[in-house]
Amino acid sequence: FRGITVLLMIIVDDAGSFLPAMNHSPWEGVTIADFVMPFFLFIVGVALALAYKRVPDKLDATRKATLRALKLFCVGLVLQGGFFHGVRSLTFGVDITQIRLMGILQRIAIAYLVTALCQIWLKGDDDVDSGLDLIKRYRYQLLAGLLITITYMVLLYGTYVPDWEYRISGPGSTEKTFTVKCGVRGDSGPGCNAVGMIDRKILGIQHLYGRPVYARSQQCSIDSPQNGPLPPDAPSWCQAPFDPEGLLSSVMAIVTCLIGLQYGHIIVHFQKHRERIMHWLVPSFGMLVLAFAMDFFGKDIVNS
User: Fold this and answer.
1) 55 touches 120 (CB < 8 A)
2) Which of 3, 61, 131, 265 matches a 20 to 30 Å C-alpha distance to 85?
3) Buried b vs exposed e over 95-132: b needs ≥16 C-beta within 10 Å?
4) Higher pLDDT, 151 or 172
5) Could you give the CA distance from residue 130 to residue 155 in angstroms, rounded to a whole number?
6) Neighbour tally for 220: CB within 10 Å
7) Percent of the chain's residues with pLDDT above 70
8) Residue ranges of the alpha helices (H) in 205-296?
9) pTM for this structure?
10) For the chain, which residues make up each domain, given as ranges?
């Protein structure tokens, strides 16, 4: 599964520039490219169920998991933080005041660490002979996933987002200031969502990704879904930095990893393929129905 995901990632990177269906969605909706990151997180969870099937020393396992997560986070910081950007230009180097703090590997590191700690510390000793036994044995992990999801939903739809400003460099050494009018709660659009607001407050707008995907939206590009010149009536937020792997959006990445962990438990506790498939299909269809229901009622979760 991980190999297929890597192949999909390569295809998306090469074909996404000229095939819109293979590129990330500018904001609303989903494309094939948008499945790559969740697939990686899912299979990390599955692998953790196998790696921590038996944990003789919980403290030692915690230490190793924390160290591994820190290493992965640091690698991501080096690769996506600005160290290797501009190799062919005179600007090559690191600007600590502008370095991007979050990224793909950083998100995986966070999800990995939380999921590993859940697997190490939050599992029972009950025997597993059925799906209900599985729920009973790992009930605290399921509760953790539920609490994380509720926290995300409360923050996403309940956080007040005030008006905010940002600056971009203009011709020469001039700077241009834009004001984004918000003053709302529960907005899931690009300019006034709680995901971006929390990143701007905690990480700082100068440490966010400077080429947001919504720059390819119809509101921000006359060549949408490709990058292009701004329309005359483009919203003020079109050129604002936004991190697709920010803090709040990484909260749901943890849940994706936890879901993979539960699917890995099925591999561990059930040996027959028929049993495994049945125990995979039941929660899969359940989550699918829930997702369509939330979308129908206008509360779709946007994992920005």
Assistant:
1) yes
2) 3
3) eeeeebbbbbbbbbbbbbbbbbbbbbeebeeeebeebe
4) 151
5) 36
6) 23
7) 92
8) 247-269, 273-296
9) 0.91
10) 1-158+246-303
